[in-house]
Design goal:
alpha/beta, 43% helix, 2 domains, Rossmann fold, 257 residues, eight-stranded mixed β-sheet, 10 helices, two-stranded antiparallel ribbon
Length: 257
């Protein structure tokens, strides 16, 4: 059973929805694992939305571990306050001995202290080898370079932001319908909206399927490398067709167009 550590700032409704989705998948056996703790860089009382997220965590009887990063930004004697902060985070989560840590709306950059000790995964809204940066920057880059595909990937967290080894991914074409009309018109605003919609609906299925695959040994992380069930190194587990099937089954036309 995969022992999962969950990292989230819990700042919005999406953070709650993702935790709900993964917890449900664990309970129904879709993911052979459990969330052994939830860590947040906020503490109770810091933000109303985060407090609602904490209420959800408690309702699942999942241990909640909190440590505000704000005092470290102000008082840390070390040059890199993130290093000092993550040393304290490590002290709090080490007793749980997670097999895997998932960054799920965690709004801090993780230092080497954590990402070298633990296998940590994060979602990036671009296909393997695609642009780095925020989702807005990714989509603008895809449009600027007239890319054929967009997508999302789960990657190992490393000191190099958004460039860790790819664990899993899904891609989809952005040159056929319904995109073709807006490429012809040069309507960048509509292209931006459409690409975001198609990428966003794939995020939850990709995360859940990735945890499912990891919990079943279809894909594994060993010595900071991604390997398949036979132990062969791979450049990521392609979940495109499986994610597409879920999207087609669960989304109506209005969700995407």
């Amino acid at each position: 059973m995969l022992n999962i550590g969950w990292f989230s700032t819990g700042r919005d409704e999406a953070a709650k929805q993702l935790l709900q989705a993964v917890q449900k998948a664990c309970r129904n056996g879709e993911i052979h694992g459990r969330i052994s703790f939830v860590f947040s860089n906020r503490e109770p009382g810091e933000a109303t939305q985060t407090d609602r997220f904490f209420d959800l965590v408690r309702s699942y009887n999942i241990p909640l571990v909190c440590l505000s990063h704000k005092p470290f930004k102000i008082t840390a004697e070390e040059r890199d306050w993130r290093t000092a902060y993550d040393r304290e985070v490590d002290k709090k989560i080490a007793p749980f001995s997670p097999d895997l840590c998932v960054l799920a709306g965690y709004m801090l950059i993780v230092s080497e202290v954590l990402c070298q000790k633990y296998d940590m995964v994060n979602l990036h809204p671009a296909p393997p080898g695609g642009p780095a940066g925020s989702w807005q920057e990714v989509i603008r880059n895809l449009i600027k370079t007239k890319s054929d595909t967009a997508g999302a990937m789960m990657h190992l967290v490393t000191p190099e932001l958004d460039r860790g080894p790819v664990v899993s991914y899904c891609v989809f074409p952005i040159k056929g319908e319904p995109f073709a009309e807006y490429w012809r018109k040069g309507d960048k605003d509509m292209l931006f909206q459409l690409i975001r919609r198609h990428e966003l609906v794939r995020e939850f299925p990709l995360i859940i399927m990735t945890l499912q695959a990891l919990s079943r040994g279809d894909v594994m992380v060993k010595n900071k490398k991604v390997i398949d069930a036979r132990g062969n190194p791979i450049g990521g587990y392609d979940l495109s067709s499986k994610v597409d099937a879920v999207v087609k089954e669960s989304c109506n036309e209005a969700d995407l167009f």
